[in-house]
């Protein structure tokens, strides 16, 4: 299973995400969707990777990255949750196993947001968005078992610590 992470495979994945218009184009989103569909269709392979885990939280595992794109496997322990956030880059993800609950928000000012909808994203689900948003959301594992998702972000993982641009606090509507 380690062969999935070899240099050739990483290079193939990263090359398939390259477009002439960069990570802010519809062509890029189509390429990212294609890569994600391929990865979520191989749950046994992804689950067999030596992924780090954090009890009660989520752990990002870099699978591949270069100066414009980073591909991460995220392991969501039961109860894990992100902050409410928006991204500074394109954000695409697919659920490999388990269920990740995604709650969407609408900003009411620069620091506060109100929930507008919630969806359970199950294994096989794939979504992509450009940073033309706002695309304010929170991801959680409300289940009792780990969930695994793959995320493709249009940013250099060595230049930025994360894809999060703005964090919000939830308020009741």
UniProtKB/TrEMBL annotation:
Keyword terms of this UniProt record: Dioxygenase, Iron, Metal-binding, Oxidoreductase
Entry GO MF terms: dioxygenase activity
The keyword Membrane is assigned to this record: no
Residues that span the membrane, as ranges: none
Keyword flag Metal-binding: yes
Family annotation (InterPro entries): CDO_1 (IPR010300), RmlC-like_jellyroll (IPR014710), RmlC_Cupin_sf (IPR011051)
Similarity field: Belongs to the cysteine dioxygenase family.
Protein name: Cysteine dioxygenase
